[in-house]
Amino acid sequence: MTPTTPPATLSPPARKRRERILGASARCIARRGVRGLRVQEVAREAGVSSGLLYYHFGDRTGLLTASLEFVSERAARYASGEGTEGDALAELRSSLLDELQDPPEVIENSSAWGELRASAIFEQGLRAPLATATREWVDAIAERIGQAQEAGLVPREIDAPAAATTLTALVEGLSNRWLSGSLELAEARRLLDAAIPRVLEI
What we know:
Blueprint: H1 12-32, H2 39-46, H3 50-57, H4 60-78, H5 88-97, H6 104-119, H7 124-150, H8 160-179, H9 185-200
């Protein structure tokens, strides 16, 4: 079942409630994983009725798909490379390193993303939306690499999509090790920062 109410058709108060529900869902996924996610728990966390969740998202799969989109959009905001305008390489570096930082929202977001990715092995319904979200992230990084190539900062022979796939996969792996306590945050950031020029051959 698909969500019964497209976000664009909602009133501003209803959109705010929807965002609150998705924030609650991301917190619950980060805490308990996808397998432990219960619609009733998300409703309690958001301070709404279970019926309102079904109204907005149709069913649990609809809620998970919308939560994945919410997590992806939130990551795009805090990993935007802001403050580095005019320097394509600095913007690329910042957008990758910003995925590895310790404000609670980023930790929650990264944890939820990792749980959603791991659960796609078992939850067939998550695979297509996860593939779409991953492709959008890779495309965004590839576009930044292309901009750095246009500026003469990265060799033109570098395959931008392949390099973007490598770098985003590295971010995910380092993030998982950091969040699971196998790697210190500073070391994860150092390793990523050292890998960027190697992958881009600069």
